[in-house]
TrEMBL record, chain A:
Pfam families, per the entry: HupF_HypC
PANTHER family tied to this protein: HYDROGENASE MATURATION FACTOR HYBG
GO MF annotation terms: carbon dioxide binding; iron ion binding
SUPFAM superfamilies given in the database record: HupF/HypC-like (SSF159127)
UniProt source species: Chitinophaga silvisoli
GO BP terms: protein maturation
Family: Belongs to the HupF/HypC family.
Name used for this protein in its record: HypC/HybG/HupF family hydrogenase formation chaperone
UniProtKB/TrEMBL annotation, chain B:
A biological process term (GO) from this entry: protein maturation
Gene Ontology MF terms in the entry: 4 iron, 4 sulfur cluster binding; carbon monoxide binding; iron ion binding
Protein name: Hydrogenase formation protein HypD
NCBIfam families: hypD (TIGR00075)
Pfam families per UniProt: HypD
Keyword Metal-binding: yes
Length: 81, 362
């Protein structure tokens, strides 16, 4: 139950106060209302990581590529040995 | 998203495995903390692909599995009070308390509802002003911000018929309890990615240093897990013990400041009893005095006798890494997902249920 799922922010309602900032998030077509209070910088079109109805982080697409650079490092390593 | 599929890339998996076979020279025992990781390791057959020297043991990181029998009894008691709507995440319903489960209580007429989010429970309280709505606030650090937010939102809206039964558990003190055990067998840890999305990674630095264990914050996809295992084993083979972050795409070193603020607004750190393990000091969250009208324990003045789980269940040994589910005499016999004796057989993230469902060799 601790898994968090990434989805795309497709609408934002600012609400009366940051506490109630929420939005609609699409998880490959299924839409849910999600609190955006903990990701104040999340904007339309961003991917957020959602856990039990609350976005807990923004998914950084750049960092996702790190895994591949790590692989390259390993390749280099193999050549050196 | 495009890169999600890349993390399932079999080529990537092969490459990590190849590298893992190359670097591993000695036996090592690694523990993955999180039940989501256990589930992924077993489901994807990764345990059978690892070099034979690598022994993966399955940690206490499933909130369903570690919520104590006594707290379940409190939940059952609350669900049976007149005019209470008792709300819970679905996975908690089948967990046996000392006499029955929430599902039994629901079948017997208690108003027990499965919700996806604690924020829905606040709305339910607003919609049902003559009822008391109680949310079963279980979970690790990942879930604590949402549960805290429900209390803060209820307070901001002046909702007085909402409260939570808090049974939060924290990862670092559990790791210390396992490492501090004189019979500890763990050489290295995969820390739980989503817990660290909230809390960051700095609280693991002193643990790595004190117990000289590498700790690698790891994600949930097969390639994530293999990379995390590879990073841990590489450290062990080199004799280093640092905190590393395999899951940097989701985890920042400093965590999520807003989420931690919500936690500290509502909760104090408290002692917590873990099912199968016992009480671990400072390993849980309890509702702060400032929000005591949202603490169901105080609001309903619950005082129940402390109970223990079924004596045949060896879940404590499993969660400390001493035994595997198949070594439990009840596994697959007296204890099955349809008739769980202990909590790790209930949740799909529990080690016993994962072994029962996916391990063909048992
Ligand atoms: S198989 Fe059942 S009884 Fe045995 S440890 Fe697992 S949950 Fe407990």
């Amino acid at each position: 139950m601790c898994l968090a799922i990434p989805g795309k922010v497709i609408a934002i309602h600012e609400g009366e106060d940051v506490l109630f900032r929420k939005g609609k998030v699409s998880f490959s077509g299924i839409t849910r209302e999600v609190s955006l209070c903990m990701v104040p910088e999340a904007a339309l079109g961003d991917y957020v990581l959602v856990h039990v109805g609350v976005a807990i982080g923004i998914v950084n697409e750049e960092e996702a590529k790190q895994i591949f650079s790590y692989l390259e490092q390993m390749g280099d390593l193999e050549e050196l040995l | 998203m495009k890169y999600i599929s890349e993390y399932r890339d079999p080529q990537l998996v092969k490459k990590y495995l190849h590298e893992l076979y190359r670097v591993t020279t000695r036996p090592w025992t690694l523990m993955e903390i999180c039940g989501g990781q256990t589930h992924s390791l077993v489901k994807n057959g990764l345990l059978d692909m690892l070099p034979p020297q690598i022994n993966m043991v399955h940690g206490p990181g499933c909130p369903v599995c570690v919520t104590s029998v006594s707290v379940l009894d409190e939940a059952l008691w609350l669900a049976q009070q007149p005019d209470v709507i008792f709300c819970s995440f679905g996975d908690m319903l089948r967990v046996p308390g000392s006499s029955q489960s929430l599902l039994h209580a629901k079948a017997a007429g208690a108003d027990v509802r499965i919700l996806y989010s604690p924020l829905e429970a606040v709305q339910l309280a607003i919609d049902n002003p003559t009822k008391e709505v109680v949310f079963f606030a279980v979970g690790f650090e990942t879930t604590a911000p949402a549960n805290a937010l429900s209390v803060v939102q209820a307070a901001a809206r002046g909702v007085s018929n909402y409260s939570i039964l808090a049974s939060h558990v924290l990862v670092p003190p559990a790791m210390e309890a396992i490492l501090g055990d004189p019979d500890n067998v763990i050489d290295g840890f995969l820390a739980a990615g989503h817990v660290c999305t909230i809390m960051g990674t700095t609280e693991y630095d002193p643990i790595a240093l004190k117990y000289k264990v590498p700790i690698v914050v790891t994600g949930f996809e097969p390639a994530d897990l293999l990379q995390g295992i590879l990073m841990t084993v590489s450290q062990l083979e080199k004799g280093t013990y640092r905190v590393e972050n395999q899951y940097a795409r989701m985890v920042a070193r400093e965590g999520n400041a807003m989420a931690m603020k919500a936690i500290h607004e509502v909760f104090d750190v408290s002692n917590r009893m873990w099912r199968g393990i016992g009480t671990i000091p400072d390993s849980g969250y309890e509702v702060k005095d400032a929000y005591k009208q949202y603490n169901a324990r105080l609001k309903f003045n619950i005082h129940l006798p402390v109970r223990e789980e079924d004596p045949d269940c060896i879940s404590g040994d499993i969660m400390r890494g001493h035994k595997k589910p198949v070594q439990c005499p009840a596994f697959g016999g007296r204890c099955r997902p349809e008739h769980p004796l202990g909590a790790p057989m209930v949740s799909s993230e529990g080690a016993c249920a994962a072994y029962y469902q996916y391990k063909s060799s048992v």
